[in-house]
């Protein structure tokens, strides 16, 4: 059995051993902004918390564009690895790196150019607009680092190495927290200091994992014969990458649109949402990463023609995801208040109450998002990334539409925004599962 080969060995054991480092890695990645939020909320006050929280939603959207491109390419890498087509793998690596690097540069330039327009679009209150702009200008400097880390981590995961990205993130997360404390408390750099700490840490992980990949995986190094952009290869990479990017970015664009609606309810609701979203992200992040690990498992076995392992893996993944979501829902429901108190002072009773209301609604329905992440990974791995886009459109379209409609009813208000989310999840689940059941033979 080749190291990183997911087409051999016990199905669930192989999948779980591959998934656990991915889960731990992305939990650490969340520490970047959560450290900012916690330190800013505790030491700089609710206005700074609202500014950094809104910026987090924006950066999640921008990161999702790059992550989607990298994840789409990763599916191609996994299929080539499963087929043992190493020349095809190297050609795909060269083509995808050029494509995503160019897009990253353009995205970075666009972000700097449109900063003020973004603040208007998000309906950021005047009293925190300057603070949020200061934070964004610094945080945008880390976009290329985000590209480097996500590209090489997706490449390593595609060939079955999920441990190395975890190690680089562990070092980077610890560095981020240490720099946060130093810049904010020691140097009194304010929100700009929190952003500077994040950017420096991002470059440590991004450059570090790129250097590691070059020296530790010589068999992946590109030769002159692979430095070409064939139309068929570019079409395949673009097909997977662009559609996965659309799926990821549409998902987060919907959240960004809801952020603007949330901001219209004032600073208290903004701050509550900023904290609750962090807790929410931590809660379902493991099942999101499990869905990505599941996707790599399916893609390698799809490339190898192992239909039996795909079917066994799908059944096992659904069970594991369901049980985890039930457990995490119970934890979030019970500990909603203590979790909110990690980020805000107990004197901020209105922020705590609104955040708890959000968590009690969202936290009860994590099974819906768990199933949806598995469906995203399944269709991407089976060469149908367009179906993931459809499911995202259903989920987020429902969320945005219902959020605006329900919140406009005086008797419902902001609670309508919170309820729109699980409704969108379950509607997309119904469509995705129905499609798979009906066309399973054709898909496999």
UniProtKB/TrEMBL annotation:
Its main location: membrane. One of its GO terms (biological process) is monoatomic ion transport. It holds the Pfam family MatE. This is Probable multidrug resistance protein NorM. The lineage of its organism: Bacteria, Bacillati, Bacillota, Clostridia, Lachnospirales. It comes from Hungatella effluvii. The chain crosses the membrane at residues 53-81, 93-115, 135-154, 166-188, 200-222, 316-336, 363-382, 389-411, 417-437. It is a multi-pass membrane protein. Belongs to the multi antimicrobial extrusion (MATE) (TC 2.A.66.1) family. PANTHER family: FMN_FAD EXPORTER YEEO-RELATED (PTHR43298:SF2), MULTIDRUG RESISTANCE PROTEIN NORM-RELATED (PTHR43298). It is found in: Cell membrane. Keywords: Antiport, Cell membrane, Ion transport, Membrane, Transmembrane, Transmembrane helix, Transport. GO terms for cellular component: plasma membrane. CDD domains: MATE_yoeA_like (cd13138). InterPro entries: MATE_fam, MATE_MdtK, MdtK-like. It comes from the Bacteria. Multidrug efflux pump. GO terms for molecular function: antiporter activity; xenobiotic transmembrane transporter activity.
